[in-house]
Write a structure and sequence with these properties.
There is one protein chain. The chain is an alpha/beta fold and about 190 residues long. The chain contains 10 helices and 4 strands; from the N terminus they run H-H-E-H-H-H-E-H-E-H-H-E-H-H. The chain has one domain: Uracil-DNA Glycosylase, subunit E. Strands 2-1-3-4 form a 4-stranded parallel sheet, with helices on both faces.
Length: about 190
């Protein structure tokens, strides 16, 4: 099966009818050449409107963390983007609603099967970490990210780069000192 066939299956799934009926395409990027997969939460409103994943201040910060230009981030075939939901889930009381349950479980395995060169999956935020690390996670996101080395080379857990997490960054200076250099080196080595 190829990526276009999988995309058509996603769009034909009754679970996604509310999006397909509005001509909203699933937002992900897959490539046979991908060596890194970035797994985030779900596209935001702006990403859905522009059909460009990580097209917001969080994406700017993620690219800075990765040490990659906006142009390279979007143009390289070495980086796949597989959010936990390929559609904007809507607004919640604070921030966006979580990705829909069962979405990643249904579609990620099919896409990853077509990407045999993936060496590292970057897990951005708790939803991605819960799905991919399961019981191997630490007691919370902070401790999972702090223990990032135990998950390498298969996974690299990160906090979400949202501006809402600036307080977390200030409380956890080890993230910038210890984790980000590893992330930059990893990305550089795979491009």
């Amino acid at each position: 099966m190829d990526f276009q066939q999988i995309k058509h299956q996603i769009m034909a799934d009754p679970m996604n009818e509310a999006f397909t009926s509005r001509n909203v395409s699933p937002l992900f990027k897959a490539s046979k050449d991908a060596r890194i997969a970035v797994v985030g939460q779900a596209p935001g409103r702006k990403a859905e409107e522009t059909q460009l994943f990580w097209n917001d201040p969080s994406g700017d910060r993620l690219r800075e963390w990765m040490g990659i230009s906006r142009e390279d981030f979007y143009s390289t075939s070495a980086i796949a983007h597989l959010p936990m939901d390929f559609y904007y889930p809507g607004k919640a009381k604070s921030g966006d609603m979580p990705p829909r349950k069962g979405f990643a479980e249904q579609w990620h395995p099919l896409l990853l099967e077509e990407m045999p060169n993936i060496e590292t999956v970057i897990l951005v935020g708790s939803y991605a970490q819960k799905y991919y690390l399961g019981k191997n996670r630490e007691k919370n996101l902070t401790e999972t990210v702090r223990q990032f080395e135990q998950y390498l080379p298969d996974y690299l857990p990160l906090v979400h780069p949202s501006p809402l997490n600036l307080g977390w960054m200030k409380k956890n200076p080890w993230f910038e000192e210890d984790v980000l250099p590893v992330l930059k080196d990893l990305v550089e080595s795979k491009l």
